[in-house]
Amino acid sequence: MSAQLRTGDRVAELIARLLADVDRLADELTDEIVGGEYSYVESTLLTRDQLRSAVHDNLRTLFTALQGRPTTLDAPRAAGRLKAEQGIPLAAVLHAYRLAGRFLWDRMLAAAVDEESTRQLLLMASDIWAAIDDYSSAAADAYRATVEERDRRDAAARGLMLTTLLDGRAGNGVRAWEIVRVLGLDRQGPFLVVCAETADGAEPLPGVEGRLRTAGVGSEWIRQIGAWVGLLALPAEQAITTAVDHLTDLALTRIGISRPFPSPVNAPAARRQAQLAVQCLPPGTHGTHLYGTAPISLLAAASPDMADEVTHAVLGPLLALPRAEQDTLLETLDAWFADGGSTTAAAERLHCHRNTVLYRLNRIAELTGRRTTDAESSAELYIALRAARLGSRPDDGGTIP
Question: For the chain, percent helix, then strand, then coil, each to nearest 5?
């Protein structure tokens, strides 16, 4: 206790009698708690002997404190830890302390055999109930700390299992299926691996587990350097679109999604797919990309060195221009491809005249030696442009817009 209580002589005698009878009182209070709180009855882990021992220690320590002698809060803290470990709800723990408070007050009033004892006891009422509150608060704090520590241990264990699966260390199919069973991901449908790029430590998919759960999709996530990686277990093939839609709605960074796969044994390959899918989106953007839906972007992501070489081989002279001019030309080329080679549609997209688009395309041809009217040259320009979008500027390492 942080402060010693000042006890009248009659109350001190009364408490001494109760302390001498603590064994019987512990039995009675244990019976009252079991009878008044069903969580203790229903618990298959907490035995009556364990509960009675905790009650006895708390009563003995509390009586000692009420005598004005220094004590600690070790007894209620130990009780709080025990109840957390045995799965007793915190509300039930606090209810038990309220039952104990009424029990003690009733027994103390009954033990006050004369008017002076009763008067002194009533003067101490607020101090007595404050002491009981201190005990229940200490038990609650220890309970919460134990639950938090258990959750951290559980999360670490689950993270280790998921890492083992994604790294391919799960070995044969039996071990892989056992891991997804323990993680609660042994559903009927296919699996997906999701790789979510992190930025500034913020969550890339806030609330993702709850959102997916409402759609019947189970998921387990681990934090890694620069990314969150998740394994999704779907209830059916048809849930793939739903899962992707939810991920897209929540995405605050680049999110890569693997192809669906039927067995957790395929998780390591799917993880690599998800990582490549992230690189299929331009840096600095947000959204989702499903592996394999953009083959050219996938080639650039899979071989960034080769993609950079192609970019400079095709667009080198253009990339040597001042930033503003190269941005304008690349934006025009991108719009022209996006609109299927229509200069009129590209002009509308860019809010300029059709002749301006033609002039810029001719300027690109002069710089690169490749005209958009030639099929092979056009293909090279498109591949180089896509690679440039996913790569970085040679002058500052930033993203080509």
Answer: 65, 10, 25
Buried b or exposed e, range 271-309, using 16+ CB within 10 angstroms? bebbbbbbbbbbeeeeebbbbeebebbbbbbeeeeebbe
Count of beta carbons in the 10 Å neighbourhood of residue 87? 13
Helix H or strand E encompassing 149: helix 125-166
How many CA atoms, within 13 angstroms, populate the side-chain half-sphere of residue 371?
Answer: 5
274 vs 232: CA distance, rounded Å: 12
What mean pLDDT is reported for the chain? 88
Alpha carbons 323 and 319: distance in angstroms, whole number: 8
What residue has token string 């608060």?
A: 137
- Tens-digit pLDDT profile for residues 309-341: 989 999 999 999 999 999 999 999 999 999 999
Alpha-carbon distances, residue 236 vs 189, 210, 239, 256 (angstroms): 4, 18, 6, 21
Q: Give the CA-trace dihedral at 373, 379, 382, 387, to 10 degrees.
A: -160
Q: How many CB atoms lie within 10 A of CB 386?
A: 23
Nearest to 129 by CA among 65, 54, 52, 56: 65
